[in-house]
Specification:
This protein is of the alpha+beta class. It is built from two helices and nine strands, in the order βββααββββββ.
Length: 174
């Protein structure tokens, strides 16, 4: 039977509309909207990932980014001193007046130049091409001898990196 554009199907006991294509179109459009939102969320996440990648690159691979990171490290660690003069993460750094001072030790280096290869870390190797240190000074605070207590024997655990130093130069050791 049909009445006002509606058909009754006795087998399924449902009334179907002659406008059922509109319901199908609405279901299709709902599915398309979900796909559009998933696509938008994916594009936003990819954009955030690339912004993070650019930020890390600017901090690690530019002199100004490294200088800012060095200032943050000095602010967080009051015992750390010195100035980053040149360099970046990719090939090395040059420091002047770098050192560490606390109640037990005072270490100062007038100038330190480190040249290394960052790419070798991916091969599990820390390759220092050259390290030049000018006028290193190490002062250790006087302390009372502490009686040695029996302890567990020292067990050497090797580092997960192979370390290679091609050139080490120390000038005016004090």
């Amino acid at each position: 039977t049909s009445h006002w554009g509606r058909n009754y199907d006795p087998a399924t006991r449902r009334i179907s509309s002659s406008f059922s294509f509109l319901a199908a179109a609405a279901d299709f459009l709902a599915g398309v909207c979900i796909v559009i939102w998933v696509k938008r969320i994916f594009l936003w996440l990819m954009g955030l990932f690339f912004l993070l990648l650019i930020g890390v690159s600017l901090l690690g691979f530019t002199h100004q980014g490294n200088k800012w990171l060095w200032q943050q490290a000095r602010a967080a660690l009051p015992s750390l001193k010195g100035e980053l003069v040149a360099g970046q993460l990719g090939y090395g750094w040059t420091f002047e007046g770098v050192g560490w001072r606390d109640e037990l030790v005072d270490v100062t280096v007038e100038r330190a130049v480190l040249d290394w290869d960052l790419g070798k870390l991916l091969q599990g190797k820390l390759w220092i091409k050259s390290l030049a240190v000018t006028r290193p000074v190490v002062r250790v605070a006087e302390s009372e001898p502490v009686p040695e207590e029996p302890s567990e024997p020292f067990v050497w655990h090797p580092l997960p990196l192979k370390i290679q130093v091609d050139s080490l130069k120390v000038v005016d050791l004090d």
